[in-house]
Write the structure tokens for this entry.
Amino acid sequence: MSRFRFTVGPWNVNEGLDAFGPAVRPTIALEEKFRKFSEIGISAVQFHDDDAVPNINDLSSDEIIEEARKVRLLLDRYGLEAEFVAPRLWMDPHTADGGFTSNSKEDRDFAMWRAFRSVDIARQLRAKNIVLWLAREGTLCAESKNPVENVKRLIEAVNSILDYDPDIRVLIEPKPNEPIDRSFCPTAGHVMAIAAASKDPDRVGCVLESAHAILAGLDPADEMAFCLSFGKLGSVHLNDQNGLRYDQDKAFGVESIRSAFNQIKVLCDNGYGKNGEYVGLDVKCMRTQKPGEDYQHIINSMRMVEIMEEKVDRFDNEYCRKCVEERNYEKLELYIMELLTH
Ligand code: GLO
Ligand code: MG
């Protein structure tokens, strides 16, 4: 039994389409996903604004609130909470050049409209957080945008969301690249700086995703630790990644067991979850998986978290202390290898 409460998004169960081929599995209705999430031990759901309210652009603010209310009732039916709502600012034609940092004023206004509607939806779902995955807030053509001005625009966007609702928290999910080449906010350190520059730093934090840290050439556990040291690790997206490739969103721990161990260790050692934080699993099902077996990657990830928790619980702090005292880190390294392979 894990000490953590898990979350996933509806997008973590998908039809298997990728950049090179079409869907291979039937679409599963939102309610059926909720039912299955609850059955496999998920506590809360993560939402894009249009996961909760499809066709959001065609609806009025009141209609959006009305639709969100129905989703809340559906969550109640399966005993699920909502962790966050994220404006999906990368799919719409209005956001081809980014949202908050688009060169078009009309498109920047559109991005803010979606962010405010996301807060409206979050209120209905009783989600405490807005997540900003800043997918296209950066450049493919470096000279196409003013990098200084646009970092300021990101801070302004965060401030506007904080102003819009006095209770909402904004969690920024950094990622260095993909779909753009250069992000204006690529790492946890950048998120901490934006949080500090915002009008209410206590309400701004980070969602740290393992794969995104690896893509930035950084260690996911250390990135988590960096946020924890500022009290700003609002959520995590655990998954795995085989080196510097496209964003793979593999099941947690399947590529690097030691990295998985260190991520869970830093979370356990610092009481992550005690203030209501969830462990999010932003994992993607392999395209080869057959219909009906398309939750296995989530189940695998939860199991890997549990296995690593058991390792953390067995970790001999006294032995570690002695190795450190003797400055025999080679001895400590062998201890870790034995712990992880037995
Ligand atoms: C993609 C991101 C994405 C976000 C999600 C929530 O690389 O990890 O899955 O986490 O859209 O905003
Ligand atoms: Mg993510």
Notes: Strands lie at 6-8, 44-48, 81-86, 129-133, 138-139, 169-173, 182-183, 204-209, 233-238, 279-281.
